[in-house]
Specification:
Elements (H helix, E strand, L loop, with lengths): L3 E7 L5 E6 L5 E6 L3 E6 L7 E4 L5 E6 L6 E5 L3 E5 L7 E5 L5 E6 L5 E6 L4 E5 L4 E6 L6 E6 L5 E6 L4 E5 L5 E5 L6 E6 L5 E6 L3 E6 L4 E7 L4 E6 L5 E6 L3 E6 L4 E7 L5 E6 L5 E6 L3 E6 L7 H8 L5 H24 L5 H57 L1
Antiparallel strand pairs: 1-28, 2-3, 3-4, 4-5, 6-7, 7-8, 8-9, 10-11, 11-12, 12-13, 14-15, 15-16, 16-17, 18-19, 19-20, 20-21, 22-23, 23-24, 24-25, 26-27, 27-28
């Protein structure tokens, strides 16, 4: 079944630059050239939050893995961390000296990597909101930087037409991929961490193996590719292009599956939800769209693995289809099956809620600790000032 448009959000007053789902799919964040960040509720009739704080265009947004924080980067050279609630409080990180184009949390939520037009990539600790170090070998604006799923590597893409792979521990550049003809707008790690995909102004999407540093796949389009996102199964890739289309690529068969038309004007950003059943897109038409994936109705991750060795494309297709149907059927029976008793389900729900609550509390604690640390720093500075003044007074007296 083809992907279908599910929801449509209007509220931004300029081009959308970035979209991201929270872990539980209850919320969607979007950044825009209108300097605002918006948090949309996936529940109908729930109002959206508009967060104001950046002094210029918001270039990028991302939810933390727990979903209790949102990071944003802006043309005002700052990075902000927001608590996605009614108050919309935020704290500011300052270290870049030009537009911040990309923000990305490590999968444990402890670190943040940012990329900027100042040609650097910076790594921060989230909880102490401290700048750790810079990576600076790019010769031009850095458009995008992401952590690998295990957090050991960082990949970055730049207007110097390269994609660079960095070791987070040694802070060395391990490899530069230089096969792009144009600027590299976006890059991301495959969920397995073994390969990366990069989107460029040369109308291409390239997939590289980061273990052997070799090109695995090359998709040639007919418009600039602005953004891409891997499906959590690792079998599909969605792209957003200047010709207003979104394209779904089947990575196992190495071909284009769907072309979706929805935006009027360039499609600027796209992202799958963490479960992969939805994806969101934004465009220069000020619209945020949410799509139902539909091509992954079953728990197809394993199905696709078993089918990889299928003889012909046709044969694979057929067996895949029947297995998928069976998967859907099984899932339905599971839901209706009274065997899995009500108490168990309730227990699971309450456990999830408790965990979410704990994560929420942790984030509040983090914020408190940050404020305390800031106060401590101020006190230390004051103390230092007093001591220096005292020294001066003593010196004056003795002289």
């Amino acid at each position: 079944e083809d992907p279908s448009l599910e929801r449509h959000f209007k509220g931004h007053r300029d081009a959308i630059t970035s979209v991201d789902f929270s872990l539980n799919k209850k919320q969607l964040a979007s950044g825009s050239m209108d300097s605002c960040l918006m948090i949309w509720s996936m529940k109908p009739q729930m109002r959206a939050y508009r967060f104001v704080g950046h002094k210029d265009a918001v270039m990028c947004v991302q939810f933390s893995p727990s979903g209790h924080l949102v990071a944003s980067g802006s043309r005002d050279k700052t990075v902000r961390l927001w608590i996605p609630s009614v108050k919309g409080e935020s704290t500011v990180f300052k270290a870049h000296t030009a537009t911040v184009r990309s923000v990305h949390f490590s999968s444990d939520g402890q670190s943040l990597v940012t990329a900027s037009d100042d040609k650097t990539i910076k790594v921060w600790t989230v909880h102490r909101q401290k700048f750790l170090f810079s990576l600076s070998q790019h010769m031009n604006w850095v458009r995008c930087a992401k952590f690998s799923p295990d957090g050991r590597l960082i990949v970055s893409s730049s207007d110097d037409k390269t994609v660079k792979l960095w070791d987070k521990i040694s802070r060395e550049c391990i490899h530069s991929f230089c096969e792009h003809e144009g600027f590299v707008n976006h890059v991301d790690f495959h969920p397995s961490g073994t390969c990366i995909a990069a989107a460029g102004t040369d109308n291409t999407v390239k997939v590289w193996d980061v273990r052997m540093n070799r090109l695995l796949q090359h998709y040639q389009g007919n418009a600039v590719v602005n953004s891409l996102s891997f499906h959590p199964s690792g079998n599909y890739l969605v792209t957003a292009s200047n010709d207003s289309t979104l394209k779904i690529l089947d990575l196992l068969e190495g071909r284009l599956l769907y072309t979706l038309h929805g935006h009027q004007g360039p499609a600027t950003c796209v992202a799958f939800s963490r479960a992969g059943d939805l994806f969101a897109s934004g465009g220069s038409d000020e619209q945020v769209m949410v799509w139902k994936t539909n091509f992954d109705a079953a728990d197809y991750g394993d199905v696709l693995k078993t089918q990889k060795s299928g003889s012909s494309v046709d044969g694979t297709r057929r067996t895949l289809q029947s297995e998928m149907d069976c998967g859907v059927h099984l899932k339905k029976t599971k839901i209706q099956d009274p065997g899995r008793n009500h108490a168990q389900q309730e227990e699971m729900t309450s456990l999830t809620n408790t965990l979410e609550h704990i994560m929420g509390q942790l984030d509040v604690l983090t914020q408190t600790v940050c404020i305390l640390e800031q106060r401590l720093t101020l006190t230390e500075d004051k103390l230092k000032e007093c001591l220096e003044n005292q020294q001066k007074i003593i010196q004056n007296k003795t002289s």
